[in-house]
Each structure stands twice: as structure tokens, then as C-alpha cells.
């Protein structure tokens, strides 16, 4: 971890001088690890969850050189702004925009940047295993770890649930397999191809940035391998507070894959399958009275996007035109990712 400079907390401006490592343990780890590592977390509207995750990361035996947190307003990083082991920066709201700010902040002195959701809890060996894969495989451009449990699938997990899963999981062998895209809740990227080819998360995918991980993975995969690292484990809590309103997410479930087809970062077959699976899931959830998810709001968004497609109006940014969420929708936009 590092101590932030006085200019580390600011709005959409240049990042200040590179921080200097301050932990003896981190320094010892750096000597054994030739790659310079940073962890980046984009968060919005969930300060207590963010702090709980940062506290957990700060207590791990293996530390990255830097831990960078980007929030749209400083109150979203309550309890972190004055800590010497965390760099807090403020950027425009939206997952893609905030992750781009993290890339800018890390660019000068980082080899591998690991993006974590604010509710992803990595195992103690996660960082070292990712570092080993990137060090041993110079052709790897992007990697994702093994998700032992994903609360997004069943209503969410608590930190105690996650710790229990991590404690009881057997430590598997490190295996590297090819994958179509990294899972955005834990996504490690080599910065050299990003900087060399001026790659960035697509800010035309606003707010939640649905499928931003697919888009970015396929963009960087032109310059290296995209892999999954078995043995680099973690748990995704899938906390439901502050998530994307149902209508907005439902619209993105249709409009964003279509946008990626046109952009060339998602095949037509994969995108159509994705759209169909989401619509069917929302219809089935509505039929069986799914109370965990706003299926009506999502289906409404699906149908609106399909209608917009017929008149060539569909666009990911259209969700910014939507008004306040209905009473059945969750209260605020989230920038947490989901399994595709």
C-alpha cells in the first residue's frame, strides 16, 4: 500500500505525484515480486461496504504497491480519505469512467492493475497467484480469477459468509485456461498494451456499464491472451444495496449487446443468446413472483429497448433519459458487475 499525495483526492484532474510505499511487509513482498501491482476499486453509494472490503484487503499478508479507490463523491469513501494505505480519487459517476480514472492514476508506476468490485473478497493468495501468472506468461493481457461463491445469484452474501467459504475451500493448483472474457468483479490487466494502444473502458456504456468487462476483454485480447486463473480464488458478495434500477438494467440488457455487435467486440450469436437469456429470465421471474429482483422493471426495460431497436433509437446512453425509478426499483445506480 502507499501513502496518497495531497493531490490524490480531486475531481477529474491530473493525479498528483506517485505515492511511495510505506509498509515494511509490502516492501519485502515487492523484493520477491518483480511486477509492480496495484488494486483498483470503483464504487458509488456504498461507503460501508467499500470500507469493509478495504479493511479486509489491508489486513492480507500479501499487499499490492497501491490500493486506488475511485468514487463519484468523496462521501462515498467515508472513513478512507485520510488513510495512508489508500489513495482516494474522485471521478465522474459510472463504472467505465471511474475505472478509466484508476488506469490514469496507476499508469506511471504499475505493471498489472487488478480491478475488484467493492464487494469482491479475494483469498489471501489471490494477488500472488495473479502476479505469478503475469510474470510467467508475458503474452497474458487480461486474467480473471475463480469465483468460489457468487451472491449475485441468490440474494447476496455477507462478509462472514465469504470468510467461511474462503476458510473451508481447499487450495487448488494454479491452472491457466483460455477464456472469452474476464469477469468484471475481479479482472487483472497488464497496463503496457493498454497504454501502448490507448485502450480504455467505453464510457458510452454509462452508469452500471453492463457488459463493460466483455467489451474491454475483447478489446485488449487483440494484444494478448485472455485467461482464467484457477486457484486465484475469491467470493463475490453480490450485495444488493445501491444496484441499478430494474428498468435501466433491463434496457441495457438489450441495448448494450447490440451496441457491442456494431462495435465488433461481441459476436452476433453470443449477443443474441445473451439478450434472449435475459428476457426469458425476467419473464420467468415475473411469472414465479421473484421477490429478490425487480423482474417487472427489467422486462419493461427489455421491451422498451426492443421497441427502440425497431425505430433505430436504441443506445446504451438512453438510460440517462429515464426518470426516477418506480417504487419497485432499487434506489440508486450501482456500478457493481454481474456474471454474464
Summarize the structure.
Residues 1-20, 321-340 are annotated as: Disordered. The chain is an alpha/beta fold.
How does the SSE layout of this entry go?
Elements: E1 2-3, E2 20-21, H1 24-32, E3 37-42, H2 47-58, E4 66-71, E5 87-90, H3 95-106, E6 112-116, E7 120-122, H4 126-136, E8 140-150, H5 159-168, E9 175-178, E10 186-190, H6 191-196, H7 212-220, E11 225-236, H8 246-263, H9 268-287, H10 295-310
Parallel strand pairs: 3-4, 3-6, 4-5, 8-11
Antiparallel strand pairs: 1-2, 6-10, 7-11, 8-10, 9-11
Helix pairs in contact: 8-9, 8-10, 9-10
Helix content: 25-40%
Number of helices: 10
Going by CATH, what is the homologous superfamily of the largest domain? Spore Coat Polysaccharide Biosynthesis Protein SpsA, Chain A
Based on secondary structure, the structural category is alpha/beta
Named CATH architecture of the largest domain: Alpha-Beta Complex
Overall pLDDT confidence: 86
Give the distance, in angstroms, between the N- and C-terminal Cα atoms: 31 Å
Number of strands: 11
Q: Give the C-alpha Rg.
A: 19 Å
Shape, per Cα inertia axes: globular
CATH C-level label of the largest domain: Alpha Beta
The fraction of residues in strands falls at 15-25%
Largest sheet: 9 strands, mixed
The CATH topology assignment of the largest domain is Spore Coat Polysaccharide Biosynthesis Protein SpsA, Chain A
Low-confidence stretches: 1-31, 325-340
Structural account:
The protein has 340 residues and is α/β, with parallel strands linked by helices. Helix content is 36%, strand content 18%. It is globular and about 55 Å long. Strands 3, 4, 5, 6, 7, 8, 9, 10 and 11 form a nine-stranded mixed β-sheet that branches. A two-stranded antiparallel ribbon has the order 1-2. The protein has two domains: 2-236, Alpha-Beta Complex (Spore Coat Polysaccharide Biosynthesis Protein SpsA, Chain A), CATH 3.90.550; 246-321, no CATH class. The longest helix has 20 residues, at 268-287. The protein has helices at 24-32, 47-58, 95-106, 126-136, 159-168, 191-196, 212-220, 246-263, 268-287, 295-310, and strands at residues 2-3, 20-21, 37-42, 66-71, 87-90, 112-116, 120-122, 140-150, 175-178, 186-190, 225-236.
